[in-house]
Amino acid sequence: MIHLYLDDVRPCPKGFVPARSAEECVLLLLECEVDVLSLDYDLGWGQPNGMQVVRRILESGRFPRRIYLHTSSDGGRLNMYQALYAGRPEDVLVVNGPMPPELLNEIANTAENRL
Fold this sequence. Notes:
Helix content: 40-55%
InterPro entries: cREC_REC
Protein name: Cell division protein FtsJ
Domain Cyclic-phosphate processing Receiver: 2-85
Oligomer: single chain
Keywords: Cell cycle, Cell division
């Protein structure tokens, strides 16, 4: 079980596996069981964005347990949230915003304890 963080620029939080592109994120989602996924929308000029990842999640049915949207793109966040919320299984949490500090600390502390 991994925690996955999609962002092309921001530093990856401790305890997360970084994905720097939509393609990399999709590969990890298809290959790994994901607990927490945090999505950015804009991933570089002319590059596939977070919505492409959302579409692949919906097509494959491989949902993480918890999905957060840390993007600064209001329109991108809204589109991703609406699509994920409408297509999610009932046991999947979709949050229209970033991870709370408590969750980030919990995951970081768990990662430290594994070392």
